[in-house]
Amino acid sequence: MSQSPASCVISDDVEALSGALFSWCAERGVRLRSQEGVRAAGVVIDLFFAGYRTQDALLGALSERDGREVVFSS
Questions:
Q1: Which of 22, 26, 33 is nearest to 58 (CA)?
Q2: Which of 6, 22, 29, 51 stands 20 to 30 A from 14 (CA)?
Q3: Is residue 34 part of a domain?
Q4: Domain coverage including residue 28
Q5: Are 47 and 58 in contact (CB under 8 A)?
Q6: Pick the residue with more confidence: 72 or 4?
């Protein structure tokens, strides 16, 4: 059974979102289900809707945001 083009796009988007989040958490030793990990997930989604569509773009924007916002402090 083949996938429709729309499901491929959605799958690519999910991979970009999850890949960026998993990489960010791994780099910082943050557990995904921790309060900080959940906040980061929300930020990744916000960044995606702001136009960051690739894993690299999302991770870069998330890392940049991490350095200047208190939202990631424990």
A1: 22
A2: 29
A3: yes
A4: 5-66
A5: yes
A6: 4
